[in-house]
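Q: What would this complex look like in 3D?
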Amino acid sequence: MIADSRSANLGAALFNRAYDLIDCAPAQRDFKRARELFSQAAAAGNLDAVRMVGNFAARGIAQRRDWTAALASYRHVATVDAQTERTIKLIDSMVLTSDGNPVTAAQLEQISAKPRIARIAQFLTADECDMLISLSAPMSRPAQVVDPYSGRLIHDPVRKAHSAFFGILSESPFVHAINRRIALASSTDVDQGEPLQILRYRVGDEYRPHVDNVAGDDNDRLITFLICLDDRFSGGETEFPLAGVKVRLEKGAAMMFYNCQGNQPDPLAVHAGLPVTKGEKIIASRWIRKRRFSPWPDQ
Ligand SMILES: O=C(O)CCC(=O)C(=O)O
Ligand SMILES: [Fe+2]
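A: Here is my prediction, written as structure tokens for the whole assembly.
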């Protein structure tokens, strides 16, 4: 008993030290050391650390990618945690290569040429949508935007919604497999994507007309990929006011559009999430850059 609680304390202490090596100022981040400490914490029986080891393996952070090892970590936790067991069941029902890539790409249906917009039916299953919603719920915060003047994240009435994102510490194999599905559907590399965000708009919430381009950044946002996770709302269409296009997706369907034309921002890609008038709109959103993108410069 005493040995058990000592091991639990040791595991928790190692986990916290590892976590702090990533959840800190960029200059202090140390992915390699964090990975070592997460492995030690996992060996001491800390289940959060076992999951973290799985996240690092799924993405290949500070190590070679190892999808089989990632799933083994999660299967271990699944024996004692019901939500982890459900995510493993969802992964097992995806049709994936041994590397975690989808075997077949989704079918795109072009709905506009200028700007380029495509729609994808049944991109996620209803259970996958529900899982993304429940995984993101504890992380949901009032949404922010990048301030074009300072480059910092700020609150702005242009974007009234709640958002959560699956960053380096929360991109599990389940989320990673979905990011790989998005990459294949958009003919991009998974490393071009920014963290997957979950946006929740309640009545009156909206994302006013804006562009997703990052002014002055050579590695601009090429594509925006949106997936509808809950369609029990009215209003809330995604509108492209200059192109006269309005899109409403049903649960599980996705759309993607290009924010650039060649090397230049596409002015026609101005878009808005119209105000929700009833219910709650929940979507997943991923901004895909022109090239590999990491918000963590040393990774
Ligand atoms: O909510 C919407 O329909 C649009 C979302 C959006 O513009 C974005 O995530 O960049
Ligand atoms: Fe946008």
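A: To summarize the key features: The first strand starts at residue 109 and ends at 112. The CA atoms of residues 106 and 185 lie 6 Å apart.
Q: Very helpful, thank you.
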